[in-house]
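User: Can you write out an input/output pair for a complex, sequences first and structure second?

Assistant: Here is one pair. Inputs:
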Amino acid sequence: MDARPTLQSVAERAAVSRQTVSNVLNAPHLVRPETLERVRQVIEEVGYRPHSAARQMRTRRSRVIGLRLQPTVDGINGAVLDQFLHALTEHAQVRGYRVMLFTAPDDEGEIAQYGELLDTLELDAFVLTSTHHGDPRTRWLADHEVPFVTFGRPWDPPATDGRSHAWVDVDGATGTRAAVEHLQELGHRRIAFVGWPEGSDTGDDRRRGWRRAVLASGVAAHELAAWDVGVPDSVADGADAAATLLDGPEDAAPTAFVCASDSLALGVLAATRRDAADPSVAVVGFDDTPVARAVGLTSVAQPLTEAAVRALQLLLDQLGPSPRPATDDHHVLLSPSLAVRASSVPAP
Amino acid sequence: MDARPTLQSVAERAAVSRQTVSNVLNAPHLVRPETLERVRQVIEEVGYRPHSAARQMRTRRSRVIGLRLQPTVDGINGAVLDQFLHALTEHAQVRGYRVMLFTAPDDEGEIAQYGELLDTLELDAFVLTSTHHGDPRTRWLADHEVPFVTFGRPWDPPATDGRSHAWVDVDGATGTRAAVEHLQELGHRRIAFVGWPEGSDTGDDRRRGWRRAVLASGVAAHELAAWDVGVPDSVADGADAAATLLDGPEDAAPTAFVCASDSLALGVLAATRRDAADPSVAVVGFDDTPVARAVGLTSVAQPLTEAAVRALQLLLDQLGPSPRPATDDHHVLLSPSLAVRASSVPAP
C-alpha cells in the first residue's frame, strides 16, 4: 500500500462519504457550502488528484467499460443502439472486459457520471454514442486522459492542436446514395427525401447522400428543393410529410421516398399505400429495424456488430501495455448495406 | 488490512492472474492441469473461501448489480427485455446502484459468470430473467448466499425446505384472459390461440388464460382443441398457423386470434388481411412491442417499468443494513393491460 492520497483517504479525513467527495469534484452544486469548503481543503492538504492522475498510477485495470444508455423514444429507432449494446457486451466479454451502464439527462450529466464512475468504480474507459456538434464530452475525457472511443464521428472541425480521438461511424450519406441508386434502377426519377430538420449532424449526412445522388442523375436543384422535407422523427410526421409531397399534380409528385429513419418511412408507407402487397410508391427507410423487417420495408442497414467490434479494438489499443499513438487509422468509417424488401416497387 | 485470504493473495502466492484463480473456481476445464493443481493447493493452504464467505466479511458494497443480456432473436420480442433493462438501469442509478452486463450461452455459463463477477468485480447482487422449470441458477445463488431477484416467477414446485426467493413477474394468464374478454365484447365466440408448443412455462401460462376464458363462455372443450396451436415463435410460423386454422368450413373457423407474442400475431395479421384498414379477423398479440404500435396491432402490455422498480426494491431489501426476512411479500405478480388498436375488429 502506498501513501498516495485516494478518494477513500480524502473521504475519511474529511469525515464524509466517498460519494460526497465525488460530488465535490463532479457535481459541487449538490454539496452544502460548508461541506464543499471542508472537502476542498482536505483535497488541497493531501494533494489528491482525481481521475487521470490516479489512473496513471494505478497498476491494475478494472477491465470495465462505461456506456450511457440512451432513453427509449418510440422504440423503433432505439433498437439500433440496443443492438450495438448487445454486440459490444458480447465482444467485450470475449476480450475480458465488462460493460457497465449508466444514464444521464444530457451531456453535462454524462460528464458528471464519468467523474463519479472513475472515482468510485475505477472504470477503464468509455464508449460514447450520439456524437454531435459542440460535444463537450470528448474534450472532458481527453483533458482527463481517460481512454474512450465514440460510435459516431466528431462533427466539429478538427482541433487546432491536431488532437483527434478514436471513433467508429457508419457512412450515412453512402447509405442514402445507395438507396437512391437502387430506386433509380427500378425506374424512379422523382425521389423525395423525408428527413429531420437541418442542423442534426446525422440527419444532414443522410440528406447529403440523397441530394448528391439525385443531382447526379440530372435532376435540377430547383426541382430537388420541392422534394426535401425536414420533420420531427415520428411515424405521424412521416405520414403528414408524404401526404403533403403527394398533394400536387400527379406528373410532378415523387414516385419514391428515401427516409432518414424507419419511423418516418413507416409513416410514408401508411400514407401512400393500403399495404405492402398493393404498393403505389416506393419507400426506403434507414436502420433496418425489426419493424422494417416485419412490414416489408426496404431499409439501409448499419453493420452494428462490426461497429461494436471495431470500437472495442480501438479502445483496447489504448488500454494495452504500450498504447498505440493516435493516427488516422483510429478513425473507422463503415459502409451500410441495403436490405431490399417489398416496399421497393418499380416506377409506374 | 486484515490477513483474510483473498482472490488476489491466492493469485500472488500461486503466481497466476486473478482471472486464472477465478477460472480454477468457476471454469476449471479452461485451466491446464498443473496450474489447476497448484492453485487448488494454495487455496487449501491459505484457507481461501470464495464468493459468499468473502462477501459476508466485506464491509463495503460495490453497489453493482449484474444482469445477463439475452441474445437478440428476431428483434421483436427482445424489445421487452431491453425495455426492462432501460428501466432497471435508470431506477438503480437513482438509488445509487449500477447495472453491469454480461452474456452467457446457457444456465451453466451464466453460473460460471456469477462466480467470476463475484470474485473479480465483487458484484453485490444479480437480476435474473427468463426463469424456467429446473432452473439451476437460483439454487446456486441461494447456496452461495448471493442476493438476487428474478424477473419471472419460479416454475418449479416450492422447495421442501420452504425456502423461496424474491421475484417479480407479470401474470400472463390474466393478460390472455383480458384479450379473450375484449374479443368477446366485440362479438367473437370462436377465438383461437396461436402460441408456442406446450412445455414452455411462460407460453403455457398464456395459453391457460385463453383456455379458461373461452371455456367460461360456454365453448365445449372438444371445440377448443381445434383452435389451439403451438408453433415456434416467428412471423412465418404465425402466418402458417393462421392459414391452417382458417382452412375449413367458414362457420367453424375462428373469427379472432389471441397470440402468445407479437411475432406470431404479426404473422396472423399478414395471413388474414390485406392491411389494418381492411380487416377480416381480429388479432391480439402479446408484449406491446414497437412493431405492434407501428402496425396497429392490439397487444397485451407488460408493466415493465413497474416490474423493474419492484425488482430493484426487492434487491435493496436484501442489501440494506438489516436484510428483511424472506416472506411472501417478496413475491410480486403484476397484471398486464391491453393496448387496443385497429386489429380489434368486431365479429362479422
